[in-house]
Amino acid sequence: QVQLVQSGGGLVQAGGSLRLSCAASGRTFSRYTMGWFRQAPGKEREFVAALGWSSGSTYYADSVKGRFTISRDDAKNTVYLQMSSLKPEDTAVYYCAADRTNISIPRYWGQGTQVTVSS
Length: 119
Fold this sequence. Notes:
0% helix
């Protein structure tokens, strides 16, 4: 069982930066692929970024590539999403997620945190 607790987010002007954090419970955190998803009003939840536990490989949606960075600190059981050059279209509720095998269908979700980018 993994519990994910998110922090960070808020209101920022376009071009600004924010960092989201996601703290996980459980001793086997390092063996989970971690990801971030987001859901804008009236839209479906979409993939943002993922970080593999074994290879350390990172994956990003084209819309955030070059602007967002996902990272993890296994000693702190925490995954981060550093967001830079934010755009109004990045406004959404952001969710962290974890899964042992397939991050595209995560078993565990954080509670979500609002990110609002003003123009």
